[in-house]
Amino acid sequence: MKNIDKNVVMLGWVSYFTDMASAMINPILPIFIVIVLHEGMDKLGIIVAVATFVSYALRLVSGYISDRYGIVKPLVVGGYALSALSKPLIGICQGYKSVAVLKAFERLGKGLRSAPKDLMISEYSKANASGKTFGFHKTMDIAGELSGTLILFGLLWFFGQSETVIRNIFYVTLAPGIIGLVLVAFFVKDVEKKQTQASASFRLTGRDKEAVKSLFFYFLFVFFLFNDAFFTMQAKSIGIATALIPLLFVVSTAVQTLTSYPLGLLIDRFGVKYVLIFAYVSGIIAQVLLLMQQPIFTWIAYAFLGLFTVASLNANRAFISQYADNRGSVYGVFYAGVAIFAALGAYVCGVIWEHVSMQDALCFSLGGTSLLVLLFILRRVRDGN
Q1: Cβ atoms of residues 363 and 154 within 8 Å
Q2: CATH number at residue 58
Q3: Domain total for the chain?
Q4: Domain that holds residue 232
Q5: How far apart are CA 253 and CA 239, in angstroms?
Q6: Are 235 and 124 in contact, with CB atoms under 8 Å apart?
Q7: Are 90 and 174 a contacting pair, CB within 8 Å?
Q8: I want to staple 360 with a disulfide (CB 3.0 to 4.6 A). Which of 206, 229, 269, 356 is the partner?
């Protein structure tokens, strides 16, 4: 890790504090919506869909702006500012619509910064070390999640699980959010601005288009994959106490923290394809474990969810860094695709859960992801690679 550029290291600390704030609210947000605000699972699905779509769709725009106009750091700083200021306001909400609006603003910030941030990391990566660099950054990112989740557990354990405590936790997220904002504004150097092309001639290259085509399987997979908010409500439904739910996220984030950098090294050594296969299989195993409806298997499911998350994101981000020319734009396309498919999937699963059953929603997810991986393997066998 000593060869990691200092700007990437500082961006890692920015992500650490920002994701600490996010992790303090993500495990309890579904409970806040369904139990405190007395909204249904379909309303939770709507909030997840809106937040996911806003978060990822804007990355298409911000990625294009980064490539076309050379504006990078201002988008990153603005994105962190939006996220830092919107999280605490969720604590004053009285209904799902206001939560959806504020969560959309919080995700708007993430969408604004993500593609330009990945572009900065890519620009500061050493030659033939993009997997390692993204692996390091993801390690810091996940370490922040782990810290935030442990803080959340401590707050719930010592102060209880009342509505007042839950609302106060949202307010507390302002502190780490502001720390991350200060770090990115004053301690991260902007990338060198490149001479831009004329707007009439700016377009994705052939390499860019091939890279985008290769991402579509992942888009379909995240459409079917059980959303992590539904993982939380499944845990609650089988009797895991609210105070212990943050520890489920600790399992997931700890696995990600421990495996992110080694997975980055494996990407550099063996290639993206094998790590993606590992990620997809991990996602399927996580859903199979949930289907067993036993607390011990749900704990293990979170570990496999962590493996899927870190392996798939590191692999796809490294793939774009290696094979795309206009990387900011392709990162944007990647995140926009995830937005559309994950948002639709969350809405569909929420409706199935609310109007049919949790079991059917889970079977829908498991069946879709399993079929996709089977088709992927058969295609590889047919093509001989």
Answers
A1: no
A2: 1.20.1250.20
A3: 1
A4: 6-185+205-383
A5: 22
A6: no
A7: no
A8: 356
In a domain, 24, yes or no: yes
Whole-model pTM: value is 0.71
Please tell me the distance from the alpha carbon of residue 272 to that of residue 135, in angstroms, as a whole number: 13
Residue 167 lies in a domain: yes
* Token pair listed for 83: 């996220």
H helices present in the chain, as ranges: 6-25, 29-31, 41-69, 73-86, 96-123, 130-159, 163-172, 174-187, 206-214, 216-224, 228-237, 245-270, 272-291, 295-323, 327-355, 358-383
Render each residue's pLDDT in the chain as its tens digit; 385 residues.
Answer: 557 778 888 998 999 999 999 989 888 888 888 888 888 878 888 887 787 777 666 766 777 787 778 788 898 999 999 989 999 999 888 888 888 888 888 888 887 887 788 888 888 877 666 667 777 887 888 789 889 989 998 998 889 888 899 999 999 999 999 999 999 999 988 877 665 444 444 567 777 888 778 888 899 999 999 888 888 888 888 888 888 888 888 898 888 878 888 887 888 788 788 888 899 999 999 999 999 999 999 999 999 999 999 899 888 888 887 787 777 778 778 877 887 888 788 889 888 988 888 889 999 999 999 998 888 777 766 665 5
100 neighbors 343 (Cβ within 8 angstroms) = no
Report yes or no on 191 lying in a domain: no
| 1 lies in some domain | no
Quote the CA–CA distance of 178 and 87 in Å, as a whole number.
Answer: 11
